[in-house]
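Regression test case RT-17, inverse folding.

Input:
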């Protein structure tokens, strides 16, 4: 943990701007459409990065390169939906547990510092004016989160013997 005023002034060997964002929590009821007694109905919460308001060490909004999802993944999802909607067929989806947080951020490329909501800050930070922490893992809400996750999964797939369908097309 450090004071933002100190972080934003220190020399940066990569000459990259230092990013700063806020973290916030979101909460929802998963499977709320089920009866209140159903064991699949539960509260779900997570911390997310406020990707809508990332600023650099000069206080300016940060612009990111175009971000997107894999066209092949989107088409595969639609195909699974169509299959599951056919009479007599069913489909299920699965998600990796804490998927995005499985990707460590490359600090040599870009530092992102985050501020925690006051209610999550430990008492030992009470003397600090504007405490921030270095973000070490990818988080939902970061404009590049999906691309970072895709790159990680592609690396793992290729290292396990899979091959690309063709160069230049995400698959």
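Golden output:
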């Amino acid at each position: 943990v450090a004071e933002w005023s100190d972080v934003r002034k220190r020399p940066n060997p990569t000459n990259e701007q230092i990013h700063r964002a806020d973290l916030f929590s979101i909460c929802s009821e998963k499977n709320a459409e089920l009866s209140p007694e159903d064991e699949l109905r539960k509260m779900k919460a997570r911390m997310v990065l406020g990707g809508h308001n990332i600023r650099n060490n000069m206080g300016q909004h940060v612009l990111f390169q175009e971000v997107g999802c894999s066209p092949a993944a989107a088409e595969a999802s639609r195909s699974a939906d169509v299959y599951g909607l056919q009479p007599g067929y069913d489909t299920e989806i699965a998600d990796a547990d804490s998927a995005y947080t499985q990707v460590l951020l490359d600090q040599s490329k870009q530092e992102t510092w985050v501020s925690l909501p006051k209610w999550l800050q430990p008492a030992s930070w009470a003397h600090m004016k504007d405490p921030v922490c270095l973000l070490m893992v990818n988080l939902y809400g970061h404009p590049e989160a999906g691309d970072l996750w895709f790159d990680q999964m592609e690396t793992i797939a290729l290292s396990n013997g899979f091959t690309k369908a063709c160069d230049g097309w995400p698959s």
